[in-house]
Specification:
The structure is a homodimer. The first copy, chain A, contains 14 helices and 14 strands. Chain A is an alpha/beta fold and about 425 residues long. Chain A folds into two domains: about 10-45 and about 310-420, Aspartate Aminotransferase, domain 1 (Alpha-Beta Complex), CATH 3.90.1150.10; about 70-305, Aspartate Aminotransferase, domain 2, CATH 3.40.640. In chain A, the strands form three sheets. The first copy, chain A, has an eight-stranded mixed sheet with strand order 2-9-8-7-6-3-4-5, with helices on both faces. In chain A, strands 10-11-14-13 form a four-stranded antiparallel sheet, with helices on one face. A two-stranded parallel sheet of chain A has the order 1-12. In chain A, helix 13 (about 365-370) packs across helix 14 (about 405-420). The first copy, chain A, is globular and about 60 Å long.
C-alpha cells in the first residue's frame, strides 16, 4: 500500500470548472460577464432586511433568541412557514405527509442539502442520473465522491422520458441498477438551459424510477432541485414532485430562499422521506449542527410579515425586464443559425451554435469574445462526466441575472460580432 | 454484492450521543440543565448587532454587497482582520506565512472546518489521534467516516506527552503510522475538561509528530481547535501552535467567532498549510460555495469598529462570575472525595468521582440526578471509540455557560445531594 496524505475524496475533488472563468473576470476590469450566476444586485432587499433586523433586535427577548444557537433541524417557525409556503405554491389541500414540517430540514443554501443527500446515499462507484447538461457544481459533488453520472437528454420542453427509460433499461441489463441511487433534476428554469420540466413529466419520471426499483433492490429517489422556482416571471407555475400522489415518498425536494430573497443570506431547505431524512439530519449535526439561527429568523420574519411575497413580485418584474432586454439583443445581434432558448424564469438563456462552431474554453469563439472583454459559460462545462457519450461543445449559457441592462445589450452585441466573424 | 440504499457513510453516521440528553431536557420543563454547551444568553450582543446591521443596511452600496453572494474563501476584509487579530493575540511580529490571509478560509462555524479537514485527509481505516476525553461531535465525525480514534491521555495541566510518544511508537511498530493523518487537539479550556495545553507542550507535540513523519511517509498535522480561546476569564493567554517557528507548516488552526460573539451567527475560520488549504477550499466549494456573506460582513464590522473587543471584555467578566458561582457551589455541596477541575476560561468544569461510582446514562447517579430534575453530561459520552482502552465511566461535564447563576447554585446543590446519597 502506498502512503497517501490526502483521502480519496481529497484527491478526487477537482478545481471547480468555473474558478478559472472567475479569475479571468477578475483580471479584466472592463469585462462584461454574462457568465456569473449572480442575482440582480439593485433589487436586493436592503431596506426590508434593515427593517426586519431592527424589529428582531429591538427587544432582548427576540434578539437573544436570534443570536443564540438553534437546533440541527432548524427554527420550528421557519420550518412551519416553509412547509405551508410550499404546499400553497403547489396548490395542495389537506395535511399530506409530503409537506410535513416534520420531514423538513433547514440548510446553508440548497447546495448543502445536495451535498448531504449525496453523502447519505452514494458510495464511490454508485451511479446518479442527471440531466444532460446539468448544474456543474452538482457534477463536481458527484465527481469528488467517485460517483458515476449518467446523462438523460433534455429537450426544449424538459426531460426526454424515452431516453430516461432507455438509460434505465441499459443499466438494468448491465446489472448496474443496484448502484443507482437517485435522479438529480433541476426542474425549474434549469441551470444551465433555462428549461422547465412539466409536472406530468415529473410524475412519469417517478413512475419510471419506481418500475425499476424491483431490479435495483432499493428505492431510487427523484432529487428535485427547485432553486429557481420563485424566479418565475412569465407563464404558469408548475407543481413540485411532492404533489405527485402515492409517489411522493420517493421525492427529495431541495429549495432555497437565497435566490428569491438574498443570496448573501444562504438559507435553503429540504423535504426528505425516511430513511434519508434521519440520515441527512445526523450528517448535518456533524457538518455544523444547524444553519445560522440569525439568518433563519430573518427569513421567518420576512415570510410572516409578507415582505418576502412583496419582494418576489418586485423581482418578477425586474427579471422579466432583464430577460426581455437579452431577448431583444439576441434577436438583433445573433446570426440566424444560432438557436437560443428563452426561459420563463430563472437567470439563464441557452444558445446552441451550429455543430461546426465549438464554444469551449479553448475555442476560437471563446478567445475572440474574451478579446472583446466578454465572458460566457461554455456549454461543455455544464456536462457531467459520462463515459457513454461525448460532451457537446457548441453551446453556451448566457446569464442576465447579475449584469446591468446596458451590459446585457452591449455584451450580446459583442458576442454577436464574434459569432458573425466566425460563422 | 448486497443491494444497499444508504452509503457506507450514511450507514455509519450514528445518532449524536447528546440528542437523547436534549430530548430528556425538552420533556422536563422544570429541568436544570448543566449539560447544554450554550453560551450565556443575557450577554449576547443584541444592541451591538442591531447597530451594526443598521449601519450596513443604511446605504444601498454596502447593503447590496452584504446581501449578494461572496466568494468560497470568504470576505477579504474579514480574512485580513481575522489574520491580524490572530497574530496580535499570539504576539507575533512581522509577516510570517502562518498568519497570511492567503491561507485562511471562512467557514460556517469552526465545526464545518473540522468536517472538511477530516474529509480532505481521512479515508475509512485511517487513524486520528484525539485527546482522551475529546469533543464528542468530533468523535462522531471520525466515526461516520470510518476513521479510528486513538486517545492520548489528558492531565490537569494538558496533554500527557510521554503517552503521546508511546501511542506513536506503538503505531509505528504495528505498521499503522502511514494511516495517521492528524492529531486533533482542543487546546484552550477544552471541551469537556476545561484543561488548557501550554504553548511549550504544543511545540513539543509538533516536534514529536514531525519525528514520526519519516515512518508515516507524509506530514502528520496538528489540528488545533481554538474554539474557546477568547472565552478566557483569568490567567494568561497562551499562544496558538501557529506561533511555533519552523513547525507551523504542520498546523491547521480552527477558530470561531460564534462563541465569543454570537452563537446564532455561526462564523468560523481556518488557517491551513498546503496542500490542505487548496483541497479544503475545493470541498467548501462543493459544500456551499461560501459562508453567508451577510454574517461575514456583520463580523467584519464588529471587528473593525471595536465592538467585538468591547464585547469580549464584557463576556470575560460575565463568565468569571458564573464560574465563581459554580466553584463556590461545588465547594459547598460536593463531597470531598469528588475531584473537580476549575477552568481559566470556556464553559465547563470537569468532575471525577471515585471509580466505584459510575456516572453514565444508565448509572444510579444519572437517574437520581434526573429524578431531581438535574442534567449533566456523563463523561463516558466524551470518549472516542478506541479499542485499545476501556472508556472511563466516573466523570461528568458541568457547564456554567447557559444556566443562570441561580440555576447553577441550585443545580450543583441537587447534584451534590445525589452524590452524597450514593457515596
Amino acid at each position: 500500500m502506498k502512503s497517501q496524505l490526502l483521502s480519496q475524496l481529497g484527491r478526487r475533488t477537482a478545481e471547480p470548472p468555473i474558478s478559472w472563468l472567475m479569475s479571468v473576470a477578475l483580471a479584466r476590469p472592463n469585462l462584461i460577464s454574462l457568465a456569473a450566476g449572480f442575482t440582480d444586485n439593485e433589487s436586493l432587499p436592503v431596506r426590508e432586511a434593515r427593517g426586519l433586523f431592527d424589529q428582531m433586535l429591538r427587544s432582548p427577548r427576540t434578539g437573544q433568541a436570534a443570536l443564540q444557537y438553534g437546533t440541527t433541524l432548524g427554527d420550528p417557525t421557519l420550518r412551519r412557514l416553509t412547509a405551508e409556503h410550499l404546499q400553497r405554491l403547489d396548490g395542495v389541500r389537506g395535511k399530506p405527509k409530503a409537506y410535513s414540517p416534520e420531514r423538513m430540514i433547514i440548510t446553508s443554501g440548497s447546495q448543502q442539502l445536495l451535498y448531504m443527500v449525496t453523502e447519505a446515499l452514494c458510495d464511490a462507484g454508485d451511479v446518479v442520473l442527471v440531466e444532460d447538461p446539468t448544474y456543474f457544481v452538482y457534477a463536481s459533488i458527484l465527481q469528488s465522491h467517485g460517483v458515476q453520472a449518467r446523462g438523460v437528454r433534455l429537450e426544449r420542453d424538459g426531460l426526454d422520458l424515452s431516453h430516461l427509460e432507455s438509460v434505465l433499461e441499459r443499466l438494468k441489463r448491465s446489472g448496474d441498477l443496484m448502484r443507482v441511487k437517485l435522479f438529480y433534476l433541476v426542474s425549474y428554469y434549469q441551470n444551465p438551459t433555462g428549461v422547465t420540466t412539466s409536472f406530468a413529466k415529473k410524475r412519469a419520471t417517478l413512475a419510471l424510477l419506481k418500475k425499476y426499483e424491483a431490479s435495483a433492490g432499493h428505492p431510487i429517489y427523484l432529487l428535485e432541485d427547485a432553486a429557481y422556482r420563485e424566479l418565475r416571471f412569465t407563464g404558469e407555475d408548475v407543481k413540485s414532485a411532492l404533489a405527485a400522489r402515492r409517489l411522493s415518498d420517493r421525492v427529495i425536494l431541495a429549495g432555497t430562499y437565497s435566490k428569491p430573497f438574498a443570496t448573501g443570506a444562504r438559507v435553503g431547505f429540504g423535504f426528505l422521506p425516511e430513511p434519508v431524512f434521519t440520515t441527512v439530519t445526523r450528517i448535518k449535526g456533524n457538518h455544523d449542527f444547524g444553519t445560522s439561527n440569525l439568518l433563519q429568523q430573518l427569513l421567518a420574519r420576512a415570510l410572516a410579515s409578507g415582505s418576502y411575497d412583496a419582494h418576489r413580485q418586485q423581482l418578477r418584474r425586474r427579471y422579466a425586464q432583464k430577460a426581455r432586454v437579452m431577448r431583444q439583443a439576441l434577436e438583433k445581434h445573433f446570426p440566424a443559425d444560432v438557436e437560443w432558448w428563452e426561459p420563463e424564469g430563472g437567470l439563464y438563456f441557452w444558445a446552441r451554435l451550429p455543430r461546426s462552431l465549438p464554444s469551449g474554453v479553448k475555442s476560437k469563439l471563446f478567445k475572440a469574445a474574451l478579446s472583446h472583454d466578454l465572458l460566457y459559460v461554455p456549454g461543455e462545462l455544464c456536462y457531467a462526466d459520462d463515459s457513454t457519450r461525448r460532451k457537446p461543445n457548441h453551446e453556451m449559457r448566457l446569464s442576465f441575472g447579475g449584469a446591468t441592462e446596458a451590459n446585457i445589450r452591449e455584451g450580446i452585441r459583442r458576442l454577436g460580432g464574434s459569432l458573425r466573424e466566425l460563422l
